[in-house]
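Q: Okay, next protein. This is Tunicamycin induced 1 from Escallonia herrerae. I've checked the sequence twice, so it should be correct. Can you predict the 3D structure?
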Amino acid sequence: MALKSLNYVVIFSIFLAIQFSLSTALISSPDLNPTYPKAFSDLKEAITKGLGFQSEDFKISGFDLRDALVGRSVAYEFDVEIDNKVLPLKLLEDVNRWEYVDLPIFRVEDTARSTEENGLVERQSSEEVLPVLAPFQLAGPMELWIQDAKDMRLSLPHDVDAGVLKKVILADGAVVTVKGARSVSLRHPVELPLPLNLTQNGFASGLLTLAERLRHTSRAQEAPLLSLRIVGPTSLASPTSSSPSSSNRLKLKRLAPGLVELSSPSKMKAIEAISTFDLQEAPTLLTPDRFTTLWPVTSVNGSNSNLLGFETLLSSVLGSKAKKEGSFKLLKADVSAQTFVKIGFGVEKKLKGGDGLNMNGIPEWRTKPETARMHFEVLAKIDGDKVVPERVIQVNPVIIEDTVAPNVLSGNMTMSRVPIVHPPPNPFTL
C-alpha cells in the first residue's frame, strides 16, 4: 500500500514538472514575445510619436513581420520655386505587386545563422538587393556625374575600357541608354520659362514645349546647361537598332582622367544646319517628333500617364501664372527606385472622459467603454538600414468592445410571451 502511494506521488511530480515546462515554453514563445530587428523597433517608436499617444495609454498589437508585404516603386521628388516661395512636390508610382519577401533587414541580428568553415565564421549579409530604375535613354547636350565611378561600364556598342569614369559629357545629338541606375537627380537649379501650355490631344504639350526651349538654350551655350547625378552601378550604351548600320555608334574623346565626351558624328551636320534658327522656330524645327518624346529623357513618351499627371499638378501649383509670361525655377529633381513595406497593426487605447467619442447614443444604464481598438496600416520606405514611415492610415473605424444580455435584446420578454410561429409545411421533411 505504501509502495502504491509512492507511485502516485512520483507520477504527480512528473505531471507537475511537465506542466511547468510547457507553461515556461509558452511564456517564452517567440510568437507571444516577438523580438524585432532594430530598424522595425525604431519604426514602432516613430509610429508611436506620429500618432500622438502616450505610451501608458495604449499598446500596439499584431505588428508581425511575417505578415509584412514588400513592393517596389519609383519616387519623384521636386522643389519648385515660384515668386521666392519653394514648394516641395513628392509623387509615388503605384506598386504593381505586393509580395512576401524575406529581406535581410527583417532578420534579428542575434539569431543570424553562422557557419564555421576552415576556421572562418561566415555570417549572412545584412545588405538587401537594392532596386534599380528601368532602362531609359538620355540625349545631349548635357553632362553626367557618376557617383559609383568604379562600377561604371561603357559600351559603344562594344565594351570600352575608359578607366574610372566620374564625368561623361554627352554632345548634342549623342543618345545613350542608362541601365542599373538607382537614382537620377538634378545637380544645379534650372530656370524654366512660362507660359505653360495645357495638355492637348492626350499629350503633355506644356512640358514638351519647356523641354524644347531648355534644349535650345543649352545648345546656344558653350558648357552644357543640364547636369545630372547618377547613383548606382550603371552602364551607358549606344541605343540598339534593328538595322545593321553605324548611325548609332558614338565617338569617345578623352578630355581628362575620369572625363570623357561622347558624340555622334552622323548628326553633326544636322546640328550645324539648325543651329542658326531663331528660338521661336526651334520647337518646330529641332524635333519633328516633339509631341512624342521629352528631352533629355527621350525614352519617355509625351502621352505617359505620369507625365500628364505631373503637368496637371504643376499647372495647379502655378495657378494663373501658368498662362502668363515669366519663369520659375526647378531647384530639385530626384527620381529614385525604392523598396516599400506595408504592415498592418492594431492599437488598443484607454479612453478618458469619452476621449472625443460620442457617448450620447449609449443609455445611462449601460457600462461605458473603457478601451477602444483601432486598426492601422503603415507604409514605410527601406532606406539602407532604416525603415522610414511614409504614411500611416486607419483602415477601419473605431471598434468599441460591448456586450449585451440576451434578455435586453429581446426587450426583457419571457419565453412564455414569445409568439409561436408555425412555418409552412415542407413536403420534403420526414
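A: Here is a summary of the prediction. The chain has one domain: 30-106+129-240+247-357+365-430. Residues 30-106+129-240+247-357+365-430 form one domain.
Q: Noted. On to the next one.
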